Amino acid sequence: MSAPPATARRTRPAARSKGHRSRARRMQVWRRRLTLVAGFVLVVVAVLSLVSPADRVVKEIKLPLRHDDIIRQQAAEKNVDAALIAGVIYVESRFRDQTSHVGAKGLMQLMPETADYIARKTGGTRFTRADLATPQINIAYGTWYLRYLLDKYDDNTILALAAYNGGETKVDEWRREAAARGEKFRVADHVPFRETRDYVERVLKARKDYRSNYPTELGLK
User: What pLDDT was estimated at residue 157?
Assistant: First the structure.
């Protein structure tokens, strides 16, 4: 039997070498692809880790919440909606301790005379007006006053908020005037103070926002 041609003997190693190089190139391509995918995944994870804190910061700026433990405590103790308390604080002070140009003080912007009255009703014999700078006292007294107004106006939140801002005397007067004309009292129609009308609307909106954004912190679920 004659030997195979010399060219045939050389072809097989060449074919094996070509196949090996082809597989090596494919492996390199796959490694590069895997490296790109892994890099992409790492970038996505890094971006997502930054987005969550950024969202929290934006929410905290737009809709701050402080002293949620005190709010929960007072809401449960006095049977007042925690989101309503937070909404009042937001509109009154944006959770900053301050004194208004008319002398209202603290987070819930209580007038000193109102605070004196609440102290007498609740047995706060050691209360001083400086205590209104303390979140625990301010929120406790403000929540007590909200509960008092809700009781007075048969749990009508709109009337209670109008009185919180405009005063009980004014709200009672406006209601009498509406009744004298045979009309059902409505804030939009019978409250002559734009500030009070806007106040009620803003607190109700803030209450809705706090319910949506801080249900756990406020003990709503």
Answer: 97
Using CB atoms within 10 A of its CB, is residue 147 exposed (0-12), middle (13-18) or buried (19+)? middle
- How many angstroms separate the CA atoms of 143 and 84, rounded? 9
How many helices (H) and strands (E) the chain has is answered by: 9, 0
Q: Find residue 16's DSSP bridge partners.
A: none
**Measured between alpha carbons, how far is 163 from 121 in angstroms, rounded to an integer?**
19
The three-state secondary structure class of 191 is coil
Which residues of 21-166 form beta strands (DSSP E)? none
Can you tell me whether residue 8 is helix, strand or coil?
Answer: helix
CA dist 61 and 213 (Å) reads: 13
Dist. CA 62–CA 56, nearest whole Å: 10
Instruction: Provide the pLDDT for residue 42.
Output: 63
Q: Which residues are catalytic?
A: 92
Q: What's the CA gap between 189 and 158, in Å, rounded?
A: 13
Kindly report the average pLDDT of the chain as a whole number: 86
